[in-house]
Amino acid sequence: MDRSGTADCLLVIPESAVGVHMGAGQRSSLLFSALSRIGSTWVVVLGYCDPARVAESFPGHVGLTQTGTRLYDWEGTPSWLTVWLARLRRFTLFGRHYRVDPAARAQISALLEGGARVVAFRYFRSYCLSGIDRSHPTAPLVLVDVDDRDDQRLASSAAQMFRQPALRWLFDLIVLRRVRALMRRRLGAADFTWFVTDEDSAGFEAVPNAVLRNVPFIDPGPVTPPPPSAAQNMLFVGSAGYRPNVDGLRWFLTYCWPEIHRRHPQATFRLVGLFDWAKQMREFAGLPGLEVVGFVEDLASEYARARAVVAPILEGGGSKIKVIEACAFGRPVVALRHSARGFGPEITGILAVADGPQDFIEACGRFLADPDLADRTGTTLRALQQTQFSRAAMEAQIVGDILQALAGNEAKR
User: Fold this and answer.
1) What's the confidence (pLDDT) of residue 83?
2) Cβ distance 316 to 23 under 8 Å?
3) Distance between CA atoms of 95 and 89, rounded to whole angstroms?
4) In what order do the strands lie in the sheet with 233-237?
5) What is the CATH number of domain 9-215+391-412?
6) Which pTM was predicted?
7) Which pLDDT score, from 0 to 100, does residue 264 have?
8) Rounded Cα distance, 139 and 186, in Å
9) Is the dihedral of CA 273, 276, 278, 283 positive or negative?
10) Contact criterion met (CB below 8 Å) for 66 and 96
11) pLDDT of 2
């Protein structure tokens, strides 16, 4: 289909949310799959992306537009000073971060003239950069998948820069409150919004919304994974390009793993995920029992050789896909309280939730010492995931929310 053709739906995403090996890209792919059940779907990438990666992430898309939007204040691999200065500018001049990009607006407007019924944005900033809302002359149904809330991500970055409580309080007063007000105002001009957790939707009751929970992208389906008792390894799965992952792993390897390995010397800890984990964890080279694996094509085999999965993430927004993915493979999960948010009381009540290093060490030790406990816990978590957090359920909810919103729009006319 050429650009002059017509698509029923547009999916607008930043270049960083393309790729089936990342959590952000996986949620994009699932949203695309649901939109494709509504009708033909055109993909708009804010920035640039390898078309082959787009084709892998969105099979069957009817067209691709890349806007060339500059999403970052740098090109290539930035220095720490460049990143620090960019964050400072974002804190002090945050309005510029959400300013409409004229090129993106023009290109999306041209596509909307083809008669699309739905335009869905991944992330609040994508929605702002587009300049499209329900007041646009050719706007169809306007949907926003907020995913990680912008104010939460800003708060996480500020916590790294401003160590003093007084500075963080000032930041909340001067910046975060204004960002939240901007979010409420702009999301109020959309037709429908998705948040990832009930906690994230708090404060946005005036905005038509629903909670769209994260689910596993990779799911063994009806195939029963081997029991955890067949393995001895502990496992972490996540991208080395995501700072909370790196900080959480440093915390775990510093305060937890040495004691876990001392008590259970037969156990190993495998670190799996995108990008250069060996570089990020070079300070722990030679730590007994640590195996830095990096990227693997077959995650199922990694879960099959794991007794339990750890999620030592201390910050960030949304919910952790790594937690519910481990549940899908029938693995018990040891998680810091922050990592367990967003999955409801049924699953959270089965997770081994820790509040500090000692709790984390003891929980890991229980699963390593008691294979029957690991099997029972993994079986329970998998059953809950299959009934409450399946890919089919997520796609059905998206389709249902869109059809209901479309019907509401038609009734208003």
Assistant:
1) 62
2) no
3) 10
4) 290-294, 269-272, 233-237, 306-311, 333-336, 352-354
5) 3.40.50.2000
6) 0.88
7) 97
8) 15
9) negative
10) no
11) 40
